[in-house]
Specification:
Blueprint: H1 2-21, E1 39-43, H2 49-54, H3 56-65, E2 70-75, H4 77-83, E3 91-94, H5 99-111, E4 116-119, H6 127-136, E5 140-144, E6 154-156, H7 166-175, H8 191-202, E7 208-212, H9 225-238, E8 241-246, H10 252-255, E9 263-266, H11 271-280, E10 283-286, H12 289-297, E11 301-306, H13 316-319, E12 327-331, H14 346-358
Helix pairs in contact: 1-6, 5-6, 8-11, 9-14
Length: 360
Amino acid sequence: MLRLLQAKIKLFKTSLAKEVLDKQINKSGKILTLDSVKSILFLRSGGKIGDTVVSSFMYREIKIKYPNIKIIVLCSKSNKEILKYNKNVDELYEVGSCLFNDISVFKNLRKQNISLVIDFFPFNPRFKHLLILRIISAKFLIGFNKISYKMYNLSINEDFFSVHITEMYKYVLNLLKIANPNLKYEIPFTSKEENPALELINNHKYKYRIIINPFSASKHRCLSVKKLKDLIDLIKNSFDCCIFILCQEKNKRKVISLENDRTIIASFRSILESAALIKYADIIITPDTSIVHIASAFDKKTIALYRDYSNSYEKTDIIWGPNNPNAVQLSVDTKRFSNDIENIPNVNILGALQKILERF
């Protein structure tokens, strides 16, 4: 009953926001004139690190075709790190969750008289989102599945829920007359981030340096400490290797008991330091898609652990798949187990690892 009431309230707020704020911003029409585009603002659908990695090729491909177009990205504190050294991004604007605190950011963007905004938010926008768009007031606004909204000049109504996310970004690039883009992800970092990772790698001389990232945003996509310990023991008994447990500082205490001379806790201060360690490791095992995409940026041999989405309309395992020829994707067998990463047998992970190492 409570959920039904919450859904009705949410629908009412969305409808009210549309009624009040959904007005035509400008009269540019439905045709995008590329000659008039001097700047592009990218609105992300959230602060997801993985999505920021995957979409990084767009900025490079636009700059190659249109070097004089200014590229601006609206980001959060969490994904700003991925883009701060990206030479193809001219300006980064960081925003938080409080509209009041960020009003000055949107007003500054309005002053830039932005030519084109590409809004990747896939759902019906709420009051805050529509208000932001009205404040920015770009000359041309592109959205996804926004055909019923007046403020959008162009709505892309393709179904991207069963293809890899890069297909959506390729579609946008095609709209900008960029054909056959290079989909290689980019994660630039400096020696500041690289040196701690190299020092850690070089201090452990084994045939294979393997990273296991046991944590993810959802409890159903995390490895328990027991499963992690059993997996580490299985791998160390099978190969001449050391294991780096990659985790955030807040999770370090959960796994500190596993640390020894061949099992090292790698809890870096930034995602770029983690990316550097991934770059220099041999193999990555992870249930977290952000780590999957970081590994893909460096073409790393990867075992990616996914839940089963075969019965879902949104094929998350396809949309956010590795997109990496060196990756093996393992999913939960929901015919035998509940849909939890914990239920992917360790012997299956070991088997995938053995096949990968055979190709070394």
